[in-house]
Amino acid sequence: MKIRQLTAAGKQGIAIASTAIAIGSLTVMPVEAANLNFDGMYVVGGSLSDVNNTLNISGGTFPISPFFARGRLSNGKVWVEYLAKDLGLNLTPVTEVNPFNPPKEGINFAFGGATTGDKNINPLAPGMQQQFESFVGLLQGQSLDPNALYIVDGAAAANDYLGGFAKTPDQPVRNILNYTRQLADSGARNILVVNMPDIGQTPLGRQIDPVTLGIISRMHNRALSRGLKKLEQIRPETNFISFDLNGLFQQAIADPKAFGIKNITGTCTNTNLYNPSTTLPLDPSQLTICKKPKNFLFWDSIHPTTHMHKIIADSAYDVLSQELSEKKISALSATTEEVSDPEEISVPEPNSVLGLLAFGIIGTFSFIKHRFKRAEVL
Questions:
Q1: Which of 96, 146, 225, 323 could make an SS bond with 14 (beta carbons 3.0 to 4.6 A apart)?
Q2: 172 prior amide bond cis, ω within 30
Q3: For residue 42, what pLDDT is reported?
Q4: CB 75 within 8 A of CB 44
Q5: Third-level CATH fold of 3-334+348-368
Q6: Largest CA distance in the chain
Q7: What's the CA angle centered on 76, arms 72 and 80, to 5 degrees?
Q8: Confidence (pTM)
Q9: Are 313 and 86 in contact (CB under 8 A)?
């Protein structure tokens, strides 16, 4: 059985959170979904989606070989790169964007170590809140392009729990839903939301407390699923596309052979960025690397191999095709009618201290990359 057939069959209704923003003309007719002919792709999230952003603010020192593929927290390309290629799009890291001439095909705002809020395990890097505000700043008051794909990579919530920033799913889930809701209110019509894999089943989680972390993961994903269903009710004109990343990982763990994987519990390397004694630069003399990374689900203590990232991208493509082929997108107004709901999800006002304007945040990136000394990044 082909991987795409397997992963699409395992799709459930919880979201892979990451958002794609298209900054373009509002007169363009929304994309005919079955063809997946998106104008652009815009992503907020953590290490699962980070390409070169952490590398750029570190002055080119992390993540690098031999511990990781340069600029990625894996041993090769990550899933948003594979997905962008499948969609025929170019995804530019936000740290390489000219704020006065942003690219039209897509921007990747994700940073390794980001929580769903304003924190990052690396204190010099932004959380998802700052990423989202950076993206809002780039719009300069324009509505979002309804033809773009917006990805909210909610897998970054693992940092909320493993980093000690949250003990319950309440705030992390609220953060993800608030960003998703605000995207819809701003004109986004195709939002892919990613849920969180069971962190209790990662090599790191198995060492810490697999039972408690498993419970937190299930609570988080159930709450996120309920919130997305509510958003679908109050914003029916928007395609809230749930990507059950946890379900995909559960399939791989239950039947690794079908995914071309042999080892689902160990790691290809002995790198553990959550070890408090870890400092940069990492010591290559202490590094061990397996001979066949493709055989492993995990590259290090928590990050999947590029082989698994490709499977994730294939599954996301199938989910998009299946979900959007069921309803042909029609032209929609840039404004959204407010719906009165006593339990309606609130969206926080952007924090001016964190910086709404993208060029302000991007300027900060260029400043702090000279001060980067340490990164313990997910």
A1: 225
A2: no
A3: 97
A4: no
A5: Rossmann fold (3.40.50)
A6: 60
A7: 70
A8: 0.80
A9: yes
* CA separation for the pair 126, 229 (Å, rounded): 29
Give the gyration radius of the chain's Cα atoms.
19
The token pair that represents 339 in the structure block: 């719906």
Domain residue limits, the chain: 3-334+348-368
Q: What is the pLDDT of residues 65-97, one digit of tens each?
A: 999 999 999 999 999 999 999 999 999 999 999
Per-residue model confidence as pLDDT tens digits over 300-329: 999 999 999 999 999 999 999 999 986 544
